[in-house]
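Preliminary data (for renewal application), fe (ii) ion complex.
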Amino acid sequence: MSQVLQALPTSNSAYAEAVNSRRIINGKDDVVQLYPIIHTFAWESYQAANANHWLPTEISMQKDIEQWRSTTALTEDERHVIKMALGFFTTADSIVANNLVLAVYKHVTSPECRMYLLRQAYEEAIHTHSYQYIVESLGLNEAEIFTMYQRIESIYDKDKFVSELVQDILDPSFKTGTFAADQKFLENLIDFYVIMEGIFFYSSFAAMLSFRRRNLLPGTAEQFQYIMRDESMHMNFGIDMINQMVQEQPELWTDTFQRRVINKLSRAAELEEAYAHALMPRGILGLNAESFRDYTQYIADRRMLSLNLAPRFKVKNPFSWMSEQVDLTKSKNFFETRVTEYQTGGALEWDDF
Ligand SMILES: [Fe+2]
Ligand SMILES: [Fe+2]
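Predicted structure:
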């Protein structure tokens, strides 16, 4: 009944009761009735995302095209980073979007969370558009980029790792409402929001930010910075949704489940480190390939902390400049500290970093 229009409430108290029973999943309220908003984090995320709208085609690729055509502006290693990062992201964003629209949305019963999911789904389409725009502008081989996940083991391994659970949730007969199903759904949220969007994107982001710092491929790097901003928002929304779901259904957060999550995040850090080495086998743009172990472990620890789990690795962040640019703490107002602002009808301006 939660997925369809509900009967008219017979009194204000019946209305209040319906709204107060709002849940991330298995809610009893009417999913088309937005007000009053109970999950305020979702509404705030939706508003913040709208205030930061952007489109790839607003960004000039002229300088990028000149540098890509030049025989001296970029090394072969740098070209490899661009192509492989695009190869990873084209599949990753598609996998995230499919999971969101075909699996997650159906089971979420909070109208305000659904509002944000719709916005997020559109942003994932913008990201895929962005990769296509870069590939086309630079004249890259589309078949090479868009099929890279089938040929590069470290990309395939990451995609496989997060995709394994999707099949259960995608099954048309999958229903929430039992302990096992709800826990599986919760795990799906962790796989996508925390591992895929919160760990697996970050080596590529670090590499892309490094291009920006050296004023290489500025149009490509600018788009990736917008994507990073969106993805940080997706991750933070996901973590809020996960923590809210655990608050609503604390029985799901068993010791065994917590251990499984910690192990998965640790395994994800290993896969991301392997990917980083394939991305930058000799290091690049001042980034030492070896330091990516510390970086991915540091990121995994931060994600564990965000889920109120004890960190496993306890290492220092070797790329402290990334914290300032991407991985902001939730205590900060994310959008007030961004280096970019979307200005409707105006130029996109950047500060140095
Ligand atoms: Fe995305
Ligand atoms: Fe995303």
